[in-house]
Specification:
Belongs to the TonB-dependent receptor family. The protein is built from seven helices and 55 strands. With 986 residues, the protein is mainly β. The strands form ten sheets. The protein has a 30-stranded mixed sheet that branches. A five-stranded mixed sheet has the order 9-14-15-12-13. The chain has a four-stranded mixed sheet with strand order 4-1-7-8, with no helix packed on it.
Length: 986
């Protein structure tokens, strides 16, 4: 009879009702099967060996450690091979004492334990009778430069170091220091979004104290939190172990500050003055008639950031319980304008964070973290002209975001070799918008070829978005001989509430018909498209995983990492029906690390891993909710003074979606598999006698399979024609989630008789190529000191990112709906679609560091030179002659890889310019009373480089007419700006 909970056959059960039931069930399963669960990387580890002067292992030695700041103590006994290990250690500085009867004691006064890593140290004990012999010379302790037990690559920073560097106060700015990490598309939002290993910026994972804080709905970045509260940040760029899942890009892992045995208080203020910031260029370009048009208006851009922090920490009970609290009011003001509207925005938030740690005794501890990140933005809109400036007010719109976040964690050191940890947390994220004049519809006039806003409306829709993540983990570590086993159960539920309604009676767009227009109107005819878009419902996403990770110390020079993760992903419609259910996603993680000389200063490693990505909750909203998308196209007889249209006879009525929630069994291909990525990596690290560290790494990533939305209306109608010719044909958009290039199976009531037919469509029937994304990179890095005062880190990365899909997002046409972009919507859209992808940055050179000046001054620098991204020449597909079904032509227009009917393969229209940048800071530290004052000035983009980061990639309008400003800049790197900060702590 097999194990009562065999891992390979695991299929997560429905959500259990209580933590107690879940914890007991899983623990009994563990004990019954002889396995245990592991922990998340929210702490650090200490490993080592105890030997005698002849290098014989010493079992039975007592190892005692003490946290310098907290006073907490742990002890262990060395095993038969002399090894010892401490798991789940709070990060910080420790002292270590080794003792054994008959041998001299050895002490190590200072050893730093960093986030997510394992410090390695070997101790040599000398027998008492030889300890005073002049003929015996030994090294009592040796700290190893590299963690030979890990094959994960990346960086670990504490905030003390980031304070010396001119980087902005957010996790992505720090992550961009990592070799190979590139900045994502600026249209996806602020905060320096990051692409790791060729993945889109929506495929990363973000964690704070073990809690997943990745953006809930789209996965683009992380939710906001007070940066001052962060203690350490770990960036994982490759070789991520099995305890992490739900990502195929990179991982940014953080831990907050906490209290100690000393009371500390402090204040900090950060100020970005708007008057000292630069501006990007404003551009004009002639249209097809030769009239100069305002294309990009940056003349009115300005911003000012004020961030205040008040914090305190200390003991509640010395050596036992500690607190850390922070208040973080922040204010942000900015202005900008387009061609005819001026916007003045003010964002306010009063963030707070509190953390409590209670070390009940050496074996039991509790951690509690809570924070609130609610903020409100008020946008005032004004009439505007470039020559006359700001005019009359249109009114205000309001946006409320954020919510409460909290997590509770319990740690139990059952024995010296077995520990258990449970974590339960919730993340709330609302995003609600409203306006002063919701009765006014939105009017846009594009008859001149550019978009002109008409009327006094301030918002096109009213939105209510309320998202919640519930996360539970049960993790246990078990050391058995040379094996450090880590097993885990990870349960995450996402609840998504969405309600979108238009202002007024819809969204109006005015057009002037070009030649060969989709409605066969005479050229020059004016028409109006009134769009009514209403969406609402509550959907869900569930993820349950088991993982196992074995760190096998084969000997003191070689480690084998064997990991396995098994995951189930489920997505539900707004009627509560499951439409995506993918189980038994087996993800192996295998790594080997070798120290060829046994000195702890050389490391050769290799790694393979498979990573799965769930279907985005945003797809639930777009595909599996009640969505009404209706278009009323009519002749435009004139425009009233308030911007409203004078409407003539109706030309067309098109229903993209009718408001009904689609049946769950017609949304997802029943034969489809998960989205996953394979990663292969080999690397070398070396530390010299002078302390310099050098590294080399080669990485290959392959997106083996993706999940995309496609329309199957044409293939389904062909099936109906062949199998049920008397049944009605389907019209318009008929979406299906699938793996492009594969067969598809769905259930659909073709003839409306109440019985669903089983529809089988071959890959040839559908006509799509398989999705592909490849990434090859070679990386060199170096870090060390030049003299006593200069610390330098540098890296060079050559990489190639190519295929026919960027992944969940699409940068070349600014689509931030994960898995719901125009890619693969119709087969013709993928013609010539294979080539260099938007995150292909062939060359990256990064250099950063700090220099200690006299008189308590420090200067920091951060510079880079990165080659440009590939560009496209988008136009209308020449084969789109409608043939009675003009749907694709109307709704897609200039998104194909053609211009003037000539093929333009992906990425073949050149590249953006190289980007070069240098940031500098100057800091001064002054002792003042019992504390210290830190004053810092930072200059970002010192030389005010104005390299374009995006160029216009549409070479044709949707009508097929020439786009005159194709290839012209639309976005630039951020202009020069200054930041001042003052911090006082005692």
């Amino acid at each position: 009879m097999g194990s009562p909970c065999p891992f390979a056959a695991f299929s997560p059960v429905p959500h259990l009702k209580t933590l107690k039931t879940l914890g007991l069930t899983v623990l009994l399963c563990l004990l019954g099967s002889g396995t245990v669960f592991g922990q998340t990387d929210a702490a650090g580890q200490l490993r080592g060996r105890v030997i005698d002067h002849e290098t014989n292992p010493l079992p039975g030695a007592t190892i005692e450690i003490r946290h310098h700041q907290k006073g907490i103590r742990r002890s262990a006994v060395s095993q038969g091979n002399g090894s010892f290990q401490f798991q789940s250690l709070p990060i910080g500085t420790y002292s270590i004492r080794i003792s054994m009867p008959g041998f001299n004691d050895v002490e190590q006064d200072r050893l730093d334990i960093a986030l997510g890593g394992a410090a390695a140290i070997d101790f040599t004990l000398v027998p008492d009778e030889l300890s005073y012999s002049e003929s015996i010379t030994v090294t009592t302790s040796r700290i190893k430069a590299f963690d030979i037990t890990s094959t994960t690559t990346g960086l670990v920073f504490d905030t003390q170091r980031t304070e010396t560097l001119p980087v902005k106060t957010n996790h992505n700015a720090v992550a961009l220091l990592a070799p190979g990490a590139v900045q994502g598309d600026s249209d996806f939002g602020t905060g320096d979004l990051v692409s790791f290993g060729g993945a889109s910026v929506g495929e990363n994972g973000y964690y704070l104290n073990g809690l997943n804080i990745t953006d809930i709905r789209k996965g683009i970045g992380a939710i906001r939190y007070p940066w001052e509260a962060v203690d350490q940040i770990q960036v994982k760029t490759g070789g991520t172990p099995a305890e992490f899942g739900r990502h195929i890009g990179g991982v940014v892992n953080m831990v907050t500050k906490s209290g100690s045995n000393d009371f500390h208080f402090g204040v900090r203020t950060v100020w970005d003055p708007r008057d000292l910031s630069g501006q990007n260029p404003t551009t004009f370009w002639p249209d097809n008639e030769g009239n100069e048009q305002l294309i990009v208006n940056n003349r009115e851009d300005s911003s000012e950031w004020q961030d205040y922090n008040v914090f305190a920490s200390g003991p509640i009970v010395k050596d036992k319980a500690f607190f850390y609290v922070l208040g973080n009011p922040r204010r942000y003001k900015d202005t900008y304008a387009n061609t005819n509207t001026f916007y003045d925005r003010q964002t306010e938030g009063d963030f707070w964070l509190a953390k409590m740690d209670w070390y009940i005794n050496q074996r039991h501890s509790v951690e509690l973290l809570g924070f609130n990140n609610e903020q409100e933005r008020t946008t005032r809109s004004f009439a505007y002209s470039f020559n006359e400036g700001r005019g009359e007010s249109h009114g205000n719109s309001y946006r409320e975001t954020g919510g409460d976040v909290w997590t509770l964690k319990y740690n139990w050191a059952v024995t010296d070799t077995l520990s258990v940890s449970t974590m339960y947390g919730k993340v709330e994220a609302v995003d609600n918008t409203r306006a002063d004049n919701p009765e006014l519809p939105a009017y846009w006039d594009s008859r001149s070829g550019s978009w002109i806003r008409l009327g006094d409306w301030v918002a096109a829709s009213i939105n209510t978005k309320e998202d919640e993540r519930t996360n539970f983990r049960l993790d246990v570590d078990w050391v058995v001989g040379n094996h450090s086993l880590r097993f885990g159960y990870d349960d995450e539920d996402l609840d998504i509430v969405d309600l979108t309604t238009p202002t007024g009676d819809g969204y109006y767009e005015y057009y002037r018909a070009e030649a060969d227009n989709p409605y066969n109107l005479p050229e020059g005819t004016d028409y109006v498209d009134r769009r009514v878009f209403v969406r609402g419902g509550t959907t869900g996403t569930r993820s349950r995983s088991l993982y196992v990770q074995d760190t096998w110390l084969i000997n003191d020079r070689m480690t084998l990492n064997l990991g396995l993760r098994n995951t189930t992903f489920e997505n539900t419609t707004s009627q509560g029906e499951t439409y995506v259910d993918i189980s038994n996603q087996i993800a192996p993680r295998i790594g080997i690390s070798w120290d060829p000389f046994g000195e702890g200063r050389t490391k050769v490693f290799a790694n393979y891993g498979r990573f799965y990505m769930p279907v985005s909750p945003n797809t639930n909203v777009r595909m599996a909710s009640g969505e009404l998308d209706e278009h009323f196209v009519s002749y435009l007889l004139g425009v009233n003074p308030d911007g409203s249209p004078v409407i003539g006879e109706q030309i067309a009525h098109q229903v993209v979606s009718n408001g009904e929630v689609p049946a769950s069994d017609r949304l997802f291909n029943q034969e489809a598999g998960p989205m996953y990525n394979d990663e292969y990596m080999i690397g070398y690290q070396q530390q010299t006698n002078s302390g310099w560290r050098f590294g080399a790494r080669a990485t290959w990533r392959d997106l083996v399979q993706s999940i995309e939305d496609i329309s199957i209306n044409y293939a389904l109608n062909n099936w109906i024609e062949a199998n049920m010719p008397d049944a009605p044909r389907v019209g318009g958009w008929f979406p299906l989630l699938t793996n492009p290039g594969s067969d598809a199976v769905l259930n659909y009531d073709v003839d409306g008789d109440g019985t669903k037919e089983r529809i089988e469509l071959s890959a040839a029937d559908l006509g799509f190529p398989q999705s592909e994304r490849k990434y090859l990179a070679f990386e060199l890095s170096a870090e060390g000191r030049i003299g006593a005062n200069l610390l330098v880190a540098s890296s060079y990365t050559w990489s190639h990112n190519y295929g026919n899909t960027e992944g969940l997002l699409r940068s070349d046409n600014d689509q931030s709906d994960p898995g719901w972009t125009t890619s693969f919507d119709y087969p013709e859209l993928m013609d010539n679609g294979y080539g260099d992808l938007p995150n292909d940055r062939r060359h990256q050179l990064k250099l950063y560091g700090s220099y200690r000046l006299p008189a308590n001054f420090t200067m920091g620098f951060n510079g880079y030179a990165i080659s440009g991204r590939p560009l496209n020449s988008f136009g209308v597909h020449p084969g789109d002659d409608c043939e009675g079904d003009c749907y694709g032509r109307i709704w897609y227009g200039a998104v194909s890889f053609f211009t003037d009917g000539v093929a333009q393969p992906r990425g073949s229209a050149g590249r953006t310019p190289w980007q070069t940048n240098l940031d500098l800071n100057l800091a001064y530290k002054l002792q003042l009373g019992r504390g210290a004052v830190n004053i810092k000035a930072e200059v970002f983009n010192v030389f005010n480089f104005e390299r374009a980061t995006q160029l216009e990639e549409e070479a044709e309008f949707d009508s097929g007419a020439n786009q005159p400003y194709h290839g012209q800049p639309t976005h630039w790197q951020e202009p020069r700006s200054l930041r001042f900060s003052l911090r006082y702590a005692f």
